[in-house]
Amino acid sequence: MELLVRQVGHWQQPRWSAIASAGNVSRGDLVHRLVQEIANLTADAEGEPRRSVPRLDNDLALPDQLRVVATDLLAAGPPDEVLARAATEVAATRTAL
Question: Is 0.85 surpassed by the pTM of this model?
Answer without folding.
Answer: yes
